[in-house]
Amino acid sequence: MVGDSEEEPGNVGLLLQEGNLSHGEWMKVNILVIDDEESIRFSFSRFLAAEGHNVTTASGYREALARMDETEFGLILADIFLGDGWGMDILREVMQRNLKTRVIMMTAYPSKETVHDSFRMQAADYLTKPLKQGGLLNSVNKALQQ
Q: What Rg, from alpha-carbon coordinates, does the chain have?
């Protein structure tokens, strides 16, 4: 399912409840946001950190690979078009490393090809920019529950 970027902002819970935690306790998820636009990295980082997650950002493909070497992420949000690479290669890297990380692909320039390729490589979602906060948080929540 393609993410709904037109959804109104709302109070969407993003934290996963684990069976070994007592009722009401939640775990934080490490999330990597990869986008060559600083305003996107800043906004997404704020939205997700406000939900209790540990957020790391990367401005491009090479920086993202370095972050992935340093930290295990539960979720990656990757722009398709990066200044120094292709976000689809991040999705391939997750598959090649056999990581359990969920990946949400994002773009301001959607195409049938990138939608098809994203889901063929098991992306959790495919979002079209600009995104509203509620649409982003809803997509993240769904991805974390998969």
A: 14
Phi, psi of 42 (to 5 degrees): -65, -50
* Residue 56's CATH number: 3.40.50.2300
Whether the CB-CB separation of 84 and 109 falls below 8 Å is answered with no
**Six-digit token pair at 33?**
């946001």
Secondary structure class of 59 (helix, strand, coil): coil
Q: CA angle, 81 as apex, 109 and 144 as ends, to 5°?
A: 90
E strand or H helix at 82, and its extent?
Answer: strand 81-82
Q: How many domains does the chain have?
A: 1
pTM, two decimals, is: 0.82
**12 within some domain:** no
Compute the distance between CA of residue 39 and CA of residue 13 in angstroms, rounded to an integer.
23
Residue 80's domain comprises 30-145
- Note the pLDDT tens digit of each residue in 90-116: 999 999 999 999 999 999 999 999 999
